[in-house]
DNA sequence: GATGAATGAGTGTTCATTCAT
DNA sequence: AATGAATGAACACTCATTCAT
């Protein structure tokens, strides 16, 4: 249910996503976002403290939806391998289907000050922790090695997927991202060894 | 022996590294860099076309050194696992020992326009390819699975390490990065499975 | 009645005229013009694309008024000699009464790039053509020689008056400009010969 | 006789004439002039106090030659009409044959500060006075009207020719300047009347 | 709440001039 | 005298943010 108050809020976020994806954060003037959202420049400041705030909220909003999808999909299984597969599938599929979102998360999000990076870290945390829980679950049910450093491994897993997406994006999205799921999973499960 | 001509060039790069690490790229005024380098503002433009150019050269210079170290170390062995270990060791150790460089590569480098990102991609390519070669070598000598997608795997490996470094940096460098080498290698070689 | 929108536009032009006359175009910083106009620096760029634009608009605005006066005065007569007299009278009188405008038209206008000079040429054209028409009229009604090269003669006439104004200005405006009308006319009509 | 000391002086002036004509005064960096002259930047300051100085000297040098030609040609005759014809012929011919010089005198010379304009006025004075003398001579020998205001008339004459040259230049030199001599003279001698 | 005109702080870059060699 | 690397003052322009309506 979207109240009348939040209508403009979402219009602005929608406009910002479009403008950021087209021009990059630093080249996206507030007035351009306002125009894309169909509101006046000043109106933006009724919903956001600063320009940076738009980016943060955009990230939180969009990532929140993603994290929800992750949680929903994983809830259905006790198999850690299967859970990892679902995580990876959603990760690749969702970003492949939303190139604008992909661009903003992979490129623009990183273009921010240290302060903002930490803010983003907080938003990202539930996702990272979800991966951590899956790894822990895999250990607990005997699927994974017991001596895994879960905090390190979750970073390795997230970092891998993250880089694959960025690489795909910078390459010009010339191949299918979701087609990489199987081989990515192979690597997570068995590593490179025979 | 540093020729007189390149002396200021390196002074400026050194100053820029310091200033970028302290303030971030966008908050680093050219005049601040000049001051840190002990030269006049205008002098910078005798050696660099524009501010962005400093970042690119800084990256190329520093990353070039790193890539050389990677190549040298790897040249000594035919064992793909051992080569991966060396790569990871150098990657973690060098950045741990050069926090300023780490900050610039992990945070500031990403703060740049798409155009620059591609420039950086080119500089990074030899490193990525080195990893690819190691993986290929591992396949060839039977250490690794034959059906590995080398281009995907190299991205997974690089992305993993990259994320570990970023995470370490954003955490405030509270733990030892090089101590993560063994477990990182475990993950690369065997994945998570028992 | 000046609409609210154009109010600042005219304030800026007025300020620019003053500042240009006092300091010359190149020594007139935008901030100085803004101050003289009683607006913020940035406001200028809501009404003009760039600094040069102010000069062009100033010229068009002021010259447009002059050209109108020329046209009005000439419309009243069929006598080419009388028309020339009116042209000359207005030319001298108006500039004598507006030393700031005189300074800008005679000195600053010429200080601009070739590109701008052509722009100015376009604005000046109606005036030059008016002179041409008068000459043609004089030929047609038998007052002037039939074999006059009207395009050359209009330049000779305009150039004469223009130089007289510049000379008067550079001399420090020590004598009356309008007092030169009679003798200037004599020269136009009869030349130097007995 | 050119001493070794003045060799570079003339090289610089020659280079400046070329560069000014090609780029205009304000877009002509000192370093560009130095390059065109085949000397080092600093060398220029051994011969000229400031950049503006080059323009002044260039003007004085080139105009000095012109004035000499004027004087020589006029010395041969006592006929004021004939003298005016010679003045006009040389004025148009010389500038038509030296488009670079024409460009600098008609366009660039005007692009200078009031201070410089007065400097130029001084250099131009002998030429203006020469015209004045011719007019006076015409009066004295009964060729011209006795009640002519010589100081005004000289300005009218100079201004006419000056405007014709500028107009020809801005038109892109599409027609012959010297072909305008006869009709210009007609205007000076008889004005426009029948 | 909504507007959008107005603000003014902030900075990369140029280039005339200097001066140690 | 000649060099040319180094200097640093100067400034147009942008754009996030405010606030009177």
From TrEMBL, chains A, B, C, D:
Residue ranges the record marks as coiled coil: none
Pfam family, one: TetR_C_4
Annotated ranges, domain HTH tetR-type: 6-66
Claim: DNA-binding is one of the keywords in the record: yes
UniProt keywords, alphabetically: DNA-binding
The UniProt record lists the keyword DNA-binding: yes
Annotation: DNA-binding region: 29-48
Protein origin, superkingdom: Bacteria
InterPro entries: Homeodomain-like_sf (IPR009057), HTH-type_TetR-like_transc_reg (IPR050109), HTH_TetR (IPR001647), Tet_transcr_reg_TetR-rel_C_sf (IPR036271), Tscrpt_reg_YsiA_C (IPR013570)
UniProt-recorded name of the protein: TetR/AcrR family transcriptional regulator
Source organism (scientific name): Paenibacillus gallinarum
